[in-house]
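Continuing the batch. This is chain 6 of the set; chains 1 through 5 are on the previous pages. Same settings as before, nothing changed between runs. Recording input and output for traceability.
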Amino acid sequence: MNIDVYHDIACPWCRIGKANLETALQQWDGEPVTITWQPFLLDQDVPAAGIPIGDFYEKKFGAENLEPMFERVRQAGRNVGVEFNFDDAVRAPSENAHRLAWLAPDDAKTAVVEGLQRAYFNEQKNVADLETLAGIAEAAGVDRAGTLRRLQSDEGVAETATAIENAYRLGVTGVPFFVFDNRYALSGAQPAESILAAMRQTVQERALSPNLA
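Output for chain 6:
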């Protein structure tokens, strides 16, 4: 089974959804599962140099809504074992972070995504910075110098942009968004039991209509 996970690095609910997916996979007793990380941009007008996350969301949602919104996310994160630090986080463009996930070897992609989320939400790093991204790759077991050279080139730029456009064309409007074998989809940071149910339903539907693409 393949699960396409549409996500944005800057989306806290994507991190929560990832944690729930990991719990579901630990409980899954069926066929092997491949996770494909698909890029998505929640915002396309983020300053290239980055902006403090509080300033970014204050402009977007209003100052009076910030702390209740952040606390809701913090509590949801604690419920699944992840912590969020919004105090000094830097909201930066996600394109290069997504490109790093695209460039990473298949067996390192999930570790790279985890490293990107941790860098953004816990380490207050700018995930648009190429040196920072190379360090994240190194922590995931990928050659730092080679990754930096590739990031400094145009490698993966067109492919990542095309994947983002494909998400829009598919009708994805928010993330996380899970697609199971191109047959069944779930939107939002669904609990592990909902993800498991979708996996089982996908297997059942495939058995009933094995020729469906």
